[in-house]
Design a protein that fits this description.
The complex is a heterodimer. Chain A is built from eight helices and 23 strands. Chain A is of the alpha+beta class. The chains are: A alpha+beta, B alpha/beta.
């Protein structure tokens, strides 16, 4: 089945993350993509071939292309995200090859948090596994709405249609619950390269795109660009740094989010609620009338206001919420359990403030996607919490804006990031 | 370039995105850390890094110093370039010297012709301790090496300067979290998502000055371990080696004893972009003996605290 939306004017940079259970062949697929699109240099292929021979795993173990750490090659697994870069004549790709093991869920979330799309690998001979469901669930919560699903190892199953059909059925059943907007399922053999870059005759029942074709035509920029476009006034500029100008005056530096920022725009500085007008916008290339989402800018305001790092300059017409209490969805990565009363540093946009978990109300079972009441979360669980913060935060719902709707919790003693938080409760967590 | 026509959400040039993201990271680290430092080797990546840092804080000065970890085995063109650049910018330069580490007995002297690349780690960590730096910006890119491909944008180092690839902090969205305890530090890599080709395209677009050794020139070289090493006071002839004059350029800048040149007639940035786009050998594969010791040479050095 193919429901990929094609876009003639595709953005030239697509960020995608790989998802799949251990041993379903994610790293092999990425290795295959890189080799068949000729992204690897001769010496890199030689090194992979040498390492494969040294470890007695055949002539060219494609998974070694991305599994670069010693421990990964020893165990034949992926421990942490590997970022790889590829370019075809159509566009550039940033690939986050994510680990499959449950204990490395935090690393998977790291890779998926900035993805426009997820490339899902399923072993077609066994069907969808629990770990894949967990990752699909996390990717959905993180806002990934496009999936390219590879029904892999079809060669081992003699390319039997029912194997492909089962993956299609399993994914279609999940797609609605996970709010997937675009789903393409492709029968492939990562090992042999069928339907990855080169079209295969092995599956005559399949007429859709190859993996590369699907990647080249998918809409990009979703992770940090598309949100907020339906409301043109939802400009967000979290202030990073104050730049003093020669001869007096200050400009406020940060990355444009939500919607473009324009000279002449009426803005409000939150949380204080002071209003002013943008008099100057400067991008890294110089002054401009309007700067797009994703650009680092500095702006000047008509009025001399007290603005510091952590404040947010927003379009006055469509303002976010200013609050000390946030209802949020949490992915808990800590080694112990998360209980009410736990204290953290909360980092949200450019502000860091002390916070306390007030209540924990529910957790998600990633297998059947059901919710159950709870008052604690154990490692790698997903739940709904109410958080109180010392300073007010300026937030949008994560469903509207991935930047102003996200935060992390940092352990006050170890300084380790122990949770990823998303403001609001997505549909997935509404159902009983 | 950014003009009003790029304001739509559909399309921004990928160099604009990389540039803005790098500037965002530099500003975040400068704001979150108390004593950052920018590591500068004189190579193309650190030239781009410095250019971005200047842009991040213009029209003001950098809120941190620049530090060169000097192996003592330099190409004179690179030191000349470094000194002119720092003087023109009016920024602060700290030189952490490997020779000083040797003189103080902090590291063993590998001899006059020995490779000093690995010794930079001690000089770097000593300087970080001495100046109490809590963050060090580097120009490393993830496309350079398989261990670097695994590293976070903000990479935590313990009190011994070590990187533990199994204990990296989750790093979601653009929430770069830079808190460390005294004695620990972060490495910040604003160029993480850039490729070698991106670097050259950006150098061309921004007209960034580079040391002359990046461009094609005539040089006396010897062939050793599959590399074309420049003859210098630290690279002496071994038995059976012959000095030849070839037309070469360098793809990376490092210690003169282990950084090879490549045969090339690319004399302009445009030539180099064409050459880079069609190269069949990676930049480290072509030119760095220090990566050829073992399958995980870079990971092993990084664990010890290398760049």
């Amino acid at each position: 089945m193919t429901t990929t939306t094609t876009n003639d004017d595709v953005m030239d940079l697509l960020r995608f993350a790989t998802i799949g259970s251990v041993d379903d062949g994610k790293s092999t697929l990425i290795g295959r993509l890189l080799v068949d699109t000729r992204q690897l240099f001769d010496d890199q292929i030689d090194a992979v071939a040498q390492a494969s021979k040294d470890r007695g795993v055949g002539d060219l173990d494609l998974s070694f292309v991305t599994d670069g750490l010693r421990a990964e090659r020893e165990q034949g697994i992926t421990i942490d995200v590997a970022y790889r870069y590829a370019a075809t004549p159509k566009r550039k790709f940033v690939i986050a090859d994510c680990p499959g093991h449950v204990q490395y869920t935090a690393n998977m979330a790291t890779g998926a948090s900035t993805a426009d799309l997820a490339l899902v690998v399923v072993d077609a001979t066994t069907g969808l596994k629990e770990q894949t469901r967990r990752h699909l669930c996390i990717a959905s919560l993180l806002g990934v709405r496009q999936l390219i699903v590879c029904a892999n190892k079809m060669d081992e199953g003699n390319w039997r249609f029912p194997l492909y059909e089962r993956v299609v059925a399993q994914m279609s059943a999940l797609a609605k619950t996970l709010e997937i907007e675009s789903l393409t399922v492709i029968p492939i053999s990562a090992l042999n390269g069928d339907n990855v870059v080169d079209r295969s005759n092995a599956a005559p029942y399949y007429e859709g795109p190859t993996v590369l074709e699907a990647l080249e035509s998918a809409p990009a920029g979703g992770w940090a660009g598309v949100h907020g476009v339906e409301t043109d006034e939802a400009t967000r500029l979290p202030v990073q740094w104050i730049l003093r100008q020669p001869g007096g005056g200050r400009t406020y530096a940060g990355m444009v989010d939500g919607a473009p920022i324009r000279v002449g725009e009426q803005v409000t500085v939150l949380p204080a609620g002071l209003t002013s007008t943008v008099t100057e916008v400067r991008t890294p290339s110089g002054p401009t009338d309007v700067a797009a989402v994703g650009l680092s800018v500095s702006v000047a305001l008509a009025d001399d206001l007290d603005v510091s790092r952590g404040d947010m300059i927003v379009g006055s017409a469509n303002q976010p919420t200013v609050t000390n209490e946030i209802e949020a969805t949490i992915c808990w990565f800590g080694t112990g359990s998360l209980t009410p009363g736990s204290r953290f540093r909360v980092k949200h946009t450019t502000r860091t403030t002390p916070g306390i978990v007030d209540t924990i109300s529910a957790k998600l079972d990633v297998n059947d996607l059901s919710l159950s009441g709870t008052s604690e979360l154990v490692s790698n669980e997903i739940g709904v919490v109410r958080l109180k913060t010392a300073d007010p935060l300026v937030v949008d719902s994560y469903g509207v804006n991935r930047i102003t709707g996200s935060f992390v919790l940092v352990d006050e003693v170890t300084n380790i990031t122990v949770a990823a938080g998303m403001v609001g409760i997505p549909t997935l967590l509404h159902q009983g | 370039m950014t003009t009003t026509d790029t304001a739509s959400n559909e399309r921004i040039d990928h160099l604009d995105l990389l540039e803005s993201h790098a500037i965002f990271i530099i500003r975040e680290v400068a704001a979150e850390c108390e004593r950052p430092v920018l590591l500068f080797s004189g190579g193309k990546d650190s030239a781009v890094l410095l250019h971005l840092a200047i842009k991040a804080f213009a029209p003001g000065k950098l809120p941190f110093p620049i530090m060169h970890v000097d192996t003592g085995h330099n190409f004179p063109e690179v030191i000349d370039y470094r000194d002119r650049l720092v003087e023109r910018l009016g920024e602060r330069l700290i030189v952490a010297s490997v020779q000083e580490s040797i003189d103080k007995g902090r590291v063993a002297d590998p001899g006059p012709f020995g490779m000093r690349n690995r010794l930079q780690t001690t000089a770097l960590l000593d300087a970080i301790n001495e100046h109490k730096f809590d963050a060090a910006f580097g120009g490393a890119r993830r496309d350079e090496d398989k261990a670097r491909a695994k590293e976070r944008v903000l990479s935590f180092r313990d009190a011994f300067g070590q990187w533990d690839p199994r204990k990296q902090r989750p790093e979601l969205w653009q929430l770069y979290q830079g808190k460390v305890a005294p004695g620990e530090h972060l490495r910040g890599f604003p160029l993480s998502d850039w490729t070698e080709l991106d670097i050259w395209q950006y150098i061309a677009r921004e007209d960034i000055e580079l040391p002359t050794i990046y461009f094609s020139h005539q040089r006396e070289i010897i062939q050793r371990d599959g590399m074309l090493l420049a003859v210098s006071e630290w690279v002496q002839l071994r038995e059976g080696e012959v000095v030849e004059t070839r037309t070469v350029r360098f793809r990376t800048v490092g210690d003169a004893t282990c950084t090879g040149s490549v045969e090339s007639h690319a004399s302009t940035i445009e030539d180099i972009i064409t050459e880079t786009a069609t190269s069949t050998v990676s930049e480290r594969g072509a030119t760095r003996a220090d990566d050829k010791f073992s399958e995980t040479a870079m990971e092993d050095r990084k664990r010890e605290g290398y760049f």
